[in-house]
Amino acid sequence: MINITINDIKLQVPYGTTILDAAKMANIHIPTLCHLNLHDINMVNRTASCRVCLVEVEGRRNLAPACATECFEGMVVKTNTERAIRARRTMVELLLSDHPTDCLVCEKNGNCDLQRLAAELGIRKIRYEGEKSTYTKDSSSGALYRNPDKCIMCRRCETMCNEVQTCGIYSAVDRGFETVVAPAFNLPMIDTQCTFCGQCVSVCPTAALTEVSYVDKVWEALFDSEKYVIAQTAPAIRVALGEEFGLNPGDNVTGKMVAALRRLGFKKVFDTNFAADVTIVEEAKEFIDRLNGKGRLPILTSCCPSWVKFIEHQFPELLDIPSTCKSPHMMFGAIAKTYFAEKFNIDPEKIVVVSIMPCIAKKYEIQRKEFKHGNLQDVDYVITTREFARMIREAGLDFTKLPDEDFDNPLGESTGAAVIFGATGGVIEAALRTAYEWITGESLGNVEFNEVRGLKGFKEATVKIKDMDIKIGVANGLGNARKLLEDIRDGKRFYHAIEIMACPGGCINGGGQPYHHGNLDIVKARLEALYKLDKSKPLRKSHENPAVIQMYKEYIGEIGGEKAHKLLHTHYTKREKI
Amino acid sequence: MPKYEVDEAKLRQLEEYIDSLSNKEGALIPVLYKAQEIFGYLPKDVQLFIARKLGIFAAKVYGVTTFYSYFTMQPRGKHVINICMGTACFVKGADKILEEIKKELDIKEGNMSKDGMFSVDTLRCVGACGLAPVVMVDGKVYGRVKVEDVKGILDEYRKREG
Ligand code: SF4
Ligand code: SF4
Ligand code: FES
Ligand code: FES
């Protein structure tokens, strides 16, 4: 421990503590911008590039950046001297001098760290008139939107993408005033190995990185009387949406969410959870087939389009091991435009499927050519939790006062196994519940597999099924997935089944969720909420979902059969590393 | 192996060089030097090849290439023409000289002529304002250049090649 003084407060801090962290212990606030510490997922952005956190250290001529300066014995720090306050304000003014000032119409209005800082430091005028850089904007992927004009060079995205996701899309390019964070050769994002996980979007302090928005398209469809617009909602959004309206992270707002969708004009409000149950019966069947020697082990889950694109670029030699199951919302799209359309006698050409997702990658996924049949696309639009909240506001709905309503039938029915799809470990747990019963022919007493739960980047478990020891691996975050896959490829580790989700923590921390602003306790609260929801469900095994059983009986036939394959399965494509 | 749209013999030469390195970590800059020596410039596919060969991200390689002014992604001609665009030269009509050279060679600034003979760049004041406007070819200085002189200067180098 070392002794330091901050603003006349004496305190003891462990070795290696930064001034910023020490100040926090003393309840002293120092503004920051580029700094970001997500210790739960081992990401710290240490670029110290913005200098918004400058403080005075006695005996030093220059001001020190609090986020990057470690305390030493006897250090005396002053955060609120005239010089420090002025310097911090100047730094923000300089940033603003090369920043567009279109806050009023900016995507991040109200959610921007730079805007918040300008308010916090009381900036009323930008004294520096500088040349403003203009760069090409990029929406080539239809998923991720890059506007480098709003980049403040904090390089959080670069740290996230390189160190956590190991995709290495961004680098500082060019020098001096021209410097910008950009992909290799300034390529359009769609031509890179970007997986569109959107984790860079989650940590970007400004609107330099956001999602490509489809709100206007969805409104257009809703106001078109020729169209039959239906919604499906991902498991992870119902425990996060409330945050956009001042509720607590993890508050379950399923009923209000359904009510809101109805009031926005959706003809039917369905649940992706229904399709998650379908995914499980298909995947469990495929798993059992592979256990019986039909195909290679391990089987990898394929619910996450970001992770799918990752394996296509990074491990093209392993493309025979992911399950061929489509992701749940894609299954839903296919089911809606066939089974549902036929059953209710609706022209599939008129049906518009809107997926409300915690995810940006799914905006990319729906455009893949495997999911187009003639001019029919399985899913028409994907909007994020954030975009959905925007629509609720635009419609003037008082969200917290809405009544709780139920999903429509038949594609609104689901089990507890489906709702945990939103969290890391949830898909494999759901699959185990079904596979266990199908293999043993016995009913599973305790359906909770605690070893595969929680936010840890990698988890494993061994489950006894009959006389077999089934080895399970679970990875979340693409860096963790990469390590695991390298070992699988090199034959260093063996598992029977592996679940991978691209986002650290799973979809509850997806790139389209309400911004966490660096506080991952929010994600933990969402996680717990999903498991609570599972517990509250009368049915907790996918194969017991009566609506699913009925659909197979009426329409699809055999699980894993020919029609199932046509509607519910897909294939993968080798892609280059770039 | 993915296809690279560059001279294969040169690519093999680069590969041999990279394979000969005992330590590939931190080798990026020397490898880029070597590659530019071999190819004369660093086209996208050469950078991609280097990235994959060294096991680093393409974006990182591109970041380094664009950071150092020594590296170029444009092919260079046998003879490099530099035109000073400093204030003195500009006032004396350097822009017209540049236009004339581009017309004569049928190229854009920063590019190489189709025959591979010349490439054209501009510079800021080279410290010879008394001679404005100034044109340099491979470091040789031509002062008080007039538009009519351009063809003669270029011919000097064309003749040399026969
Ligand atoms: S979306 Fe994901 S993979 Fe793509 S640049 Fe951002 S962090 Fe990297
Ligand atoms: S983990 Fe979930 S939110 Fe993240 S990219 Fe995958 S599917 Fe989307
Ligand atoms: S927050 Fe400390 S330098 Fe940016
Ligand atoms: S301006 Fe051309 S040499 Fe100085």
From TrEMBL, chain A:
NCBIfam families: FeFe_hydrog_A (TIGR02512), FeFe_hydrog_A6 (NF040763). It comes from Caloramator fervidus. The keyword Metal-binding applies. PROSITE patterns: 2FE2S_FER_2, 4FE4S_FER_1, 4FE4S_FER_2, 4FE4S_HC3. This is NAD(P)-dependent iron-only hydrogenase catalytic subunit. Residues 83-122 form the 4Fe-4S His(Cys)3-ligated-type domain. Residues 1-83 form the 2Fe-2S ferredoxin-type domain. Residues 142-172, 186-214 form the 4Fe-4S ferredoxin-type domain. Pfam families: Fe_hyd_lg_C (PF02906), Fe_hyd_SSU (PF02256), Fer2_4 (PF13510), Fer4 (PF00037), NADH-G_4Fe-4S_3 (PF10588). One of its GO terms (molecular function) is iron ion binding. Keywords: 2Fe-2S, 4Fe-4S, Iron, Iron-sulfur, Metal-binding, Oxidoreductase, Repeat.
TrEMBL record, chain B:
InterPro entries: NADP_DH_HndA-like, NuoE-like, NuoE_dom, NuoE_N, Thioredoxin-like_sf. Signal peptide: none annotated. Gene3D superfamilies: Glutaredoxin, NADH-quinone oxidoreductase subunit E. The keyword Metal-binding applies. Its cofactor is [2Fe-2S] cluster. Keywords: 2Fe-2S, Iron, Iron-sulfur, Metal-binding. [2Fe-2S] cluster binds at residues 84, 89, 125, 129. GO terms for molecular function: 2 iron, 2 sulfur cluster binding; metal ion binding; oxidoreductase activity. Belongs to the complex I 24 kDa subunit family. This is NADH-quinone oxidoreductase subunit E.
